[in-house]
Amino acid sequence: MWGADHLSILTARLVEEIEAAMAGDPVALEPDEYAGVAVPCNVELLASKVP
User: Fold this and answer.
1) What is the pTM of this model?
2) pLDDT tens for residues 11-47?
3) What distance in Å separates the CA atoms of residue 4 and residue 36, rounded to the nearest whole number?
4) Is 29 in contact with 5 (CB distance < 8 Å)?
5) Is 45 in contact with 14 (CB distance < 8 Å)?
6) For residues 51 and 48, what is the distance between their CA atoms, to the nearest angstrom?
7) Which residues are CB-neighbours of 14 under 8 A, at least 6 positions away?
8) Cβ pair 9, 17 in contact under 8 A
9) End-to-end Cα spacing for the chain
10) Is 7 a residue whose pLDDT tops 60?
């Protein structure tokens, strides 16, 4: 089993990637190819429940 430390590191990394992709002028926000796929996946991972 993974410890809470590992999960907090993973969660922080996902949040940082989302923040970086969403930074800037919200009116002109247009994600690049990577962020357009990665951000929704990261949000889904953060929102999912661990059994």
Assistant:
1) 0.58
2) 888 888 888 877 777 666 566 777 778 888 888 888 8
3) 29
4) no
5) yes
6) 9
7) 42, 45, 46
8) no
9) 12
10) yes
What the block records as the tokens of 34 is 């990577």
C-alpha atoms less than 13 angstroms from C-alpha of 15 in its C-beta half-sphere = 8
Between 50 and 24, the higher pLDDT residue: 24
Of the candidates 25, 45, 51, 48, the one whose C-alpha atom is nearest the C-alpha of residue 17 is 45
Length of the chain: 51
Q: Are 39 and 21 in contact (CB under 8 A)?
A: yes
Residues whose CB is less than 8 angstroms from the CB of residue 35 and which lie 6 or more positions away in sequence, other chains included: 21
For residue 45, the model assigns a pLDDT of 83
What is the structure's pLDDT at 2? 54
